[in-house]
Each structure stands twice: as structure tokens, then as C-alpha cells.
Amino acid sequence: MQQALALARNALFLSNPNPRVGCVIMSVDGRTELGAGFTQQAGGPHAEVMALRDAAARGSDVRGATAYVTLEPCSHHGRTGPCCDALIAAGIGKVVGAITDPNPRVAGQGFERLRAAGVKVEIDAAAGVLSRELNIGFFSRMSRGLPWVRLKAGMSLDGATALHDGQSQWITSEAARVDGHRWRAQACAILTGIGTVLGDDPLLNVRGVDTPRQPKLVIVDSELRTPPTAKLFDVPRDVLIYCAELDARRQSALEARGARIFHLPASNGQVDLQAVIRDLGQREINELHVEAGGTLNGALMQAQLIDECLLYLAPSILGNAQTAFSGMELTQLKDAPQLEYQQAALVGPDLRIQAIVAGH
Ligand code: AOF
Ligand code: ZN
């Protein structure tokens, strides 16, 4: 199962919006690996099918063998056929699964069908915790209909993201920026705001990481001010723009650059952020990576739409400056969002803190 989990991690940048799953088929005596595989790109084969194909290519006989899978084998016809049927047809004798598939189209029916066909089924709950962690966005979307929203920010040790005049390049190190690109790469989409687009003209893509796909880019742009000449359109990928006010001329200029424009009901003239996040869940966004300015960050935090913060702290002090959540305004200390630290690590000279918003 450890090997299957390691294989699942190979799908980190690849399988979205499909969960990252690994499968290892072992001989009846448990001594020989017969085949192994992991989930391919969406629409491609699942881990079990890859492992069965691998076994066939190696000339292994899998009859009676044990398959270790990091997620319940699927029982439905989605973009591909049911894995539980493929395992049954191959004559697999036992399946050790890490966790039930939260997809309501599977949800226990895969294990059920294996048992009904005489295949032994065991659950490895300890591995299930790790599989769920690896697929936090998929589990979030399946259980709440919402993506897992991870906000990334780089700042000085005293929490400054830029000087008052806007100077911000660079507060954190090259190593932190490379690390940040790996987190972008594993997301289904990157979300930013119109302030960042106008202020920085960023690309907001994945660079310097070997990845087979670029995440979609989502822009919160209430008045549809994104310039059709923005550099972000030079990257081949889906661009989704959420606005609260439509303007036919600007819309068609942006659509000519390949953007898709979504008009959502406004609250106080601004795009309803909760509606944006809900809509992204319906569009199969598992992990949503937020890189935005203090205004949008603060509004998202105040609306309780952030699940996790990924903060890079440089060992420098910037004093009176801009901050990562400046759009949030509290009158009572007791109203402050509380987070739980998950992990702290040094990334080059910077400190990377992962924290989950309490109750998420
Ligand atoms: C598995 N093994 O490796 C993965 C599974 O549209 P499809 O046919 O690709 O099905 C996608 C669903 O299959 C996905 O939502 C999840 O429930 C399950 N993913 N299942 O047996 C795998 N990645
Ligand atoms: Zn499957």
C-alpha cells in the first residue's frame, strides 16, 4: 500500500479533476509485484487498469492475486469503464482499498460489487487518511460541492506583502517561488483579482515545473476591466472571468482572446464570491489556488471561503506597509478567523507555513 500511495503521488499534476490513485498488484504469496500503475489524465485509464495492463505487458498471471488500491475501485461508467469489473474479469482474488470513493456514483458500490463477485475486500484505514489528504480537493468537491481553497502569499516576517508604493519584487526567495509553482501545478485552477491583473500584468501559469497541464485561470473582475492585451492571455489554457456588470463590447473583445465570461449576481456592486466558488465546484475544480492582492484575499477570508493558507515568510522586516488581507476589516478581536498550523518548513531562506482555517 505504501508503494501504491507513492505511485498515486505521481498523478499529482496529471489526473485533475480525477483523484490521484495508485494500484499495485501482488502475487498470492505476497512476494512478487505483478503490475503497478497510477491514474492518467482525465478521460485516460484509472490506476487499476494501468496496473492490469502493466501486469499483462510483464506476462504476469494475476489470477488470485491481491490488488492494493489507494481508492475504492469505481463501479460506474464515467469517461472510462468500471475498474471493479476489470479487476473481477482479470480474476483478482483480493482487493485492499484505502478509502471509499466519495463520488456518489461509486460510494461503496465498487467494494460491494467486488464482494458479490467473490473477491475478498479489506480496508486499510491508515492509508485512507493519506489518500484523502492527497486528494483533499476531490474529497471537498464530492462532499461539499466546493473546491478546497488554498490561499498562497509571500510576505516579510512582519507580514508585509509590499511597501506602500507597491514595491514587492522580491520579498521571498527564488526557492520559495519555485516551491509556489509546484502548488500552482497541482491545482485545477488559479484564482486572482482584477487588481492584480491591472497592477502586475502577471502570467499566473506554472513555470519551472515539469507538468503536463496548465491550471485554468479564474479572474474576479466585477466591472470586466481585464485588458484584452493582458499577458495572461499568451498562455494556452482556459481563462474564466467572473463579472457583475456586463459590457457587450468588452465581453466580445475578451472572448476573442479565448476567455469565457460569467455574469453573476452582484452583492454591493461586487461579484458574489460565494457564488464564484460554488460555480467552480460545479465546474469540477478540486483544488483552487488563490494568488491575489489584499483586497480580494481579505474579502475571501471574511466570507469564510478560504480553507487553507500557504504562507512564505521571508526573514526581513518591512515595517509600515501593505498586508496580505488588507481587505478584511474587524471591529472585534473575537471575530478573527482562527487557523491551525499544519506544517512549517524552511524553503531556502524562507519559512513556509501551512495552516488550515479552523472548522474546515
Ligand atoms: C478508480 N481508479 O484511478 C480513479 C478513480 O470519468 P472517469 O471514468 O474517469 O471516472 C472518474 C471517477 O472515477 C472519479 O470521479 C472518481 O470517482 C473515480 N476515480 N477510480 O477506480 C482511479 N482515479
Ligand atoms: Zn476506475
From TrEMBL:
GO terms for molecular function: 5-amino-6-(5-phosphoribosylamino)uracil reductase activity; diaminohydroxyphosphoribosylaminopyrimidine deaminase activity; NADP binding; zinc ion binding. It comes from the Bacteria. Residues 1-122 form the CMP/dCMP-type deaminase domain. Binds 1 zinc ion. CDD domains: Riboflavin_deaminase-reductase. Its cofactor is Zn(2+). GO terms for biological process: riboflavin biosynthetic process. NADP(+) binds at residues 154, 170, 196, 200, 222, 293-299. Its EC number is 3.5.4.26, 1.1.1.193. Keywords: Hydrolase, Metal-binding, Multifunctional enzyme, NADP, Oxidoreductase, Riboflavin biosynthesis, Zinc. Converts 2,5-diamino-6-(ribosylamino)-4(3h)-pyrimidinone 5'-phosphate into 5-amino-6-(ribosylamino)-2,4(1h,3h)-pyrimidinedione 5'-phosphate. This is Riboflavin biosynthesis protein RibD. It comes from Diaphorobacter aerolatus. The lineage of its organism: Bacteria, Pseudomonadati, Pseudomonadota, Betaproteobacteria, Burkholderiales. The gene is ribD.
